[in-house]
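Researcher: I'm preparing a figure for a lab meeting and need a structural model of a single chain. I don't have an experimental structure, so a prediction will have to do for now. The sequence is pasted below. Please return the structure as tokens so I can convert it later.
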Amino acid sequence: STRKESSAASDVYKRQAMVIAAQAWNEVFADPELGIALRRIVHTDQSLHFERPLREGDEVWATARIERVRQRGEIDMISLAVTLEVDGETVAVATSGLMHTREEAAA
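Model: Understood. Here is the structure written out token by token.
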């Protein structure tokens, strides 16, 4: 029973971290200067690495960054990372891989 409760708690903080990371990714998608359109994206992979679990009462700050862009024909392969911090300490890093078709290729 304790193991199941521990596993359930672990799932909760993982889901919370992914929700926060997704909100940061949405800020990247909403930036008109980047020209990334959600309708032209295929999500290729995702990972989440924790330094420690999120805790009740944590004030979490998320910083999204584009780590790498590789162009393959009309496709951009984009690596994104979101760092989650509490009190200036990194508590988790969520990464995501995307394939993005450029606007001119989608037309």
